[in-house]
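Thanks for the sequence, V.! I ran NADPH-dependent FMN reductase right away. Repeating your input here for the record:
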Amino acid sequence: MKKIIALGGSNSKNSINKLLATYAANKVQNAIVSILDLNDFELPIYGVDLETENGIPENVKKLSNLIASTDGLVISLAEHNGSYTSSFKNTIDWLSRIDIKVWKDKPLLLLATSPGARGGATVLQSAKTYFPYLGGDVVADFSLVSFYDNFTENTISNNELNEELNQKIRLFEQKITHI
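Predicted structure:
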């Protein structure tokens, strides 16, 4: 059995991205899924002076170790003003202080969703470009547009979108199987 992490890139208690990441990760065959919540890894806002005075917070070390111990990650990114949420970006900033390869060369299935018609497309494109520099092996990506219209009763209700996600999940499965 492969170990994967599902992570929503938001600290919202009702994160639709955490729902999507959890949904997709649980569809990966032969995998043990750990669902991570950024709220469980509360961090101060990164600053070089703070790091110099206090070192790396224990929550950063814990998260970095969890990433290192997994076979792959399913990350769904919330979009705030066309970019990552401040909590997610802050987490990346702290993680990069331990290892610039934040994602530890692990396979990534990148997702994004939003209530709107673009489904977080801007932040998803940014992550596809940026995450390889942070040691992420981006295997596939998927954007779920109009979340509340297309995700009902804990499933993607739009058959075409659901099949597209299933194809992306199969690519991710193939990659983690060969690790």
